[in-house]
Amino acid sequence: MFEQLTLGALWQDRVRLSADAPFLDFVDPAEPDTNRALTYADTAGLVDAQAALLTECGVRADDRVVIHMRNTVEMIVTLLAVQQLDAIAVPTIIQYSPPELAYVIGHCGARVVVTDDPHQDVVLRALQELDRRPVVVNGGAKVADGEEPVDLREHLPSGHRPGDRTAMMMYTSGTTADPKGVMLSHRACLSAGYDNAAALRLRPDDVLYCVLPLFHVNAMAFQLLPCLMSGSSMVLSPVFSVRAYWRVIREHGVTVGNLTNGPVRLLLDAEPDPLDREHRMRLMCYALPLEEQEIAAFRERFGAEMSMGWGLTETLACGTRTPTLIEPRHTWQSIGMVNSGWELKVTDDDRNELPLGEVGEAAVRGPGLMSGYFRDPDATAKALVDGWFYTGDLVRVDEQGYVFFEDRKKDVIKVKGENVAAGEVERVVKKAPGVRDCAVIGLPDRILGERLVAVVEADDPPTSEELAAWCADRLARFKVPSEFRFVDQLPRTSIGKIRKHELKELVSRP
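The structure corresponding to this sequence follows.
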């Protein structure tokens, strides 16, 4: 399915079919003067203008365009303009430090970087670390001229069908090396949008509320792509606001929400309001597990059903989902059933399939699977075997087909829905003056999901404030440990491997 269709073609079809229908309401609770409402036709005019500018900057088919922007109308316009040109969108995490952003720009060989005022300075500082520099665009105009980038087309999938070409690349944290560029084809993006639109039972009169960042696969796969597929509309906000969340939902007739577990808990913690059930929202999608009593409390208080989804960047957020057409069985750590059209198996360390009920690594395959990691054939070969993607997540499946998340096989910590590779943070801390070694662990946190703690081995240790500042200059904010602990010696095995489970017990003690 979708072998011959591209996202650019879908956008053109949607504009033709739904020209005068509402498409996008931008709502910033902190700056209400910036609110905007656009139809599909209104947006198409902006997309055409942005596509013309990108063409002037030299963008052509299969070129990479880095989009370093927060949730705004301009970000969506740029995403669609890139697809209209058959180029490749590379949305990047706005919390990136200049070195992190420089790596992505250089690794993907970007021809153009599109940014906005709050992030332009970081982009320009990132370019100072590169030998070859792309064009920088902000506010519909060039900010900096670029140089001819290295031609990296030979590293892209060369399928003859339009749907097999790469539509987007998203960079995900690597546990032992630099971030990897996940190549997502047009067919994968369209399949994810179609499947999620069907699972959410979207109709043209549905309204989705997007507060999660579109530079991540969750908001892209669960909100923007299904919206385009179904011809529904979307309310877009740059950040999540507890105070404004239900007001926006009431005022804009939102029918489907999408959050991670931390914001859901903040909504539950807020003072009850007589208007808590005065809205049209019929479904709240969420990622990362909630406890059964929290799900029951949300349903009772706000009158909306809840649907848990599990997936990865490499699967376009597809994997499992709480069923919406049958009575859901909400139990702790249940991540639902396998998505329609997908397969999941549980395997041991040798990748042999395990019997029902046993815990092992989840491997999945389906229509939304990545094409591979950009310029990294070794990592691709390890992760993709015979069409199966090995996720690094440990799960079990019960006798009724419900999947339960148990742990992560890889040393990745989830902070506010962001993947943080412990090894990446450890490498930065180890380079700080006075530090001999470091181990980064994640401890449970009700709102963050997990919080980062760095346990540091040092002869003449710097202060926690000095280490935090050192990390903040080199890492995105969410990767900076919230706490530093200092020890004379880290606990190790007989072969020198750090015993992280012992560290967790040590740090958890009062």
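The chain has 14 helices and 27 strands.
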